[in-house]
Amino acid sequence: MTWMTHSPACFALLGYGRFGTAFARMLLHAGYRVHVWDPNVPVPAALAVASMRDAVDAASWIVLAMPVPHMRETLLALRPLLHAGQVVFDVGSVKMHPCAAMDELLADAIPHAGTHPLFGPLSLARCERPRRTVICASARHPRAAERIRALFVELGCEVIDQDAETHDRAMARTHVLAFFIAKGLIDIGVDDGMPMAPPSFQGMKHMLAAVRGDAGHLFGAIQRENPFAAETRAELLAELHRVHRQLLAEMDDDSLAIPAPDAPAA
Q1: Nearest CA to 180 among 189, 168, 191, 172?
Q2: What is the pLDDT of residue 31?
Q3: Residue 115: which residues within 8 A CB-CB, separation 6 or more?
Q4: DSSP code string of the chain
Q5: pTM (2 decimals)?
Q6: How many Å from the N-terminal Cα to the C-terminal Cα in the chain?
Q7: What is the C-alpha separation between 210 and 47, in angstroms, rounded?
Q8: Torsions phi, psi of 253, nearest 5?
Q9: What is d(CA 178, CA 157) in angstroms, rounded to the nearest whole number?
C-alpha cells in the first residue's frame, strides 16, 4: 500500500484545456478529489472553484496544466498561496523553462518537479499502452520526485527519469519534428483521411490524427518553447534540401536508397 492510499488526496488542477480535462478524468477515476481553476474555459460545476486560492487551499497536489508560455506568470501568482506541505508539478511538453521557473520561484520552500506525460486525450481514448511519463526531478526536492513517481505509477504509467535538458533534446527530435512535419503536410493539403493512401502512409496518417487530436493548437508553443527546436528543424530542412538536390541531379538509386534498420545483435 502506498502513502497516498490512506485517504483521497485533493488536487488543484490549474488549467482545463484538452490535457487538463483528460488528466482530471484520470484523477477522478483513480478516486482522487479534483478542484479546477481556469478562468479562460468553462469548467464543470462539480469541479470548478471560484479562484486560484480556493483551488489550492485544500489541495495536497498542485498541477500546472496551463500552456507553457503562461507558466511563469501563474507561478508568480501562485507562490503566496502555497505551503511546504504541498507538491507542485507541471505537465508541459517542454521542461527546461518550467523547471527553471519552479526552481527559481518555489526554490527550497515548496516541493516541486517537472513532468511530461507522454500521452494525450486521443491516446487515452484509445487505451494505448504503454502509457509513459517523464519526471525531471529538482535537485532541491528529490523526495517530491519520488512522490510524483508513485502517483503516476498509481495512474498506470511507466516512469522515465530524465534531466530537463536531456528531455528537451529528445523531444526536439521527436515531438517537435512530428508536429513540424504534420503542419507542413496539412498545410499543403495532405490529409489523414485520404482514400488512396498506400500502406506506407499509415504511420503518417496516425501521426496526423494524433497531432490534430491531442495538441494541434499548441503547435507554436511546442516549437518556440523548446530551446533545441529551431536547430533541429534546420537540420531536417537542410537534409531534405540535400535529398531534393540529389533527386534533381538524377543521382543513381543506390545513393538515394533508404537504409534498412540495423540487424539485431546475435
Answers
A1: 172
A2: 95
A3: 89, 90, 91, 133, 134, 135, 136, 148, 152
A4: --GGGSS--EEEEE--SHHHHHHHHHHHHTT-EEEEE-TTS---TTTB-SSHHHHHHT-SEEEE-S-GGGHHHHHHHHGGG--TT-EEEE--S--HHHHHHHHHHTTTTS-EEEEEES--HHHHHTT-S--EEEEEE-TT-HHHHHHHHHHHHHTT-EEEE--HHHHHHHHHTTHHHHHHHHHHHHHTT--TT-TT--GGGHHHHHHHHHHHHHTGGGHHHHHHHSTTHHHHHHHHHHHHHHHHHHHHTT--HHHHPPPPPPPPP-
A5: 0.86
A6: 41
A7: 27
A8: -65, -30
A9: 23
Would you state the cell numbers that stand for residue 77, as one nine-digit string?
Answer: 501568482
pLDDT in tens, 139-198: 999 999 999 999 999 999 999 999 999 999 999 999 999 999 988 888 888 876 667 777
d(C-alpha 25, C-alpha 40), whole Å: 19
User: Cα–Cα distance between 35 and 12 in angstroms, integer?
Assistant: 5
Residue 178: φ, ψ to 5°: -60, -45
Q: What is the pLDDT of residue 214?
A: 59
At 48-96, the pLDDT tens digits run 999 999 999 989 999 999 999 999 999 999 999 999 999 999 999 999 9
**CB neighbour list of residue 234: distance below 8 Å, 6 or more residues apart:** none
Widest pairwise Cα distance in the chain: 69
Half-sphere exposure in the Cβ direction for 216 (13 Å, CA): 14
CA separation for the pair 85, 96 (Å, rounded): 25
Cα 248-252-254 angle, rounded to 5 deg: 125
Residue 5 to residue 59: CA distance in whole angstroms: 15
